[in-house]
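[job 4417] fold queue: 2 targets
>>> target A
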Amino acid sequence: MNFLPLLSGPCIAQVAVPFTTASGHFGVFRDGRFEELEQRKPQVVFPNGPRVAYITEQGELRGWDEGQLMNYQRGEPVSVKTSRGMLAWKQGGRLLFAGEAGPKTICHDAGEFTVQDSLVAYHNEIEKTLCVYWRGH
């Protein structure tokens, strides 16, 4: 016997939940509403708590944060990493972070990098140092 759980109240996602419709449209569900973002399914989606980042069919890195659609990177391949609402990516040797006002360059000559909790750790290849970006510094 199968049971279907009943919801006694409104359905509200505490995080942004990405979805793709049967017709290929892409969007997010958050705060009890569905919002369409793209007419076509993205190449890759990075769910990230209250935010969602994705690479469009054309290769652009975009993000959705609290109802705002942001264009982060156009045209060039990027390496993206996320953790607990933090988003960082590398384009060539340049390491960028998704700030409130848009993309912010952290380092111009970064090697390997990782994103964990509220930190972006990276290797500065010019200065030969291991660096950490935390709370804007």
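>>> target B
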Amino acid sequence: MKRNYFSTSGMDKKLTLIFAILFMSITFSFACGIDFVLTDKSGKEVKPEHVKNGETYTLVLTYRYTHGNCGVDLKDTDYKTDGIKILKATEWKKENNVYVRKMQIRIVDNKKDAVSLNVIRSCNRAGLNATFTLSR
């Protein structure tokens, strides 16, 4: 019996699909990451239900590279807000193998059920699209 190595059986297609999904999940698991912490004027962490319209808070962003040779500078990070106003922000500062940036923010829309800050880093790898949301 002659076997054609270029045709694929149903099982071969399933294995190919499984390996493709596995490869993509491993690739995306190495995307850069960011964490958010909201604090009040005294530096204590604030829970979303305690946030008040018009009040000023500090949003601490902690960013970690997963690609040691990332071609996108931290200064090229984009921010989109919805119901939040960025009053001022520090530059990114390296602290213990992560980068930290503090933003002074004000909640400007109390009519919405949720306000948010979206952080976007576009690159040819996995990039980053993370959102800090205050649901009230």
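[job 4417] complete. Note on B: Residues 22-29 have pLDDT under 50 and may be disordered.
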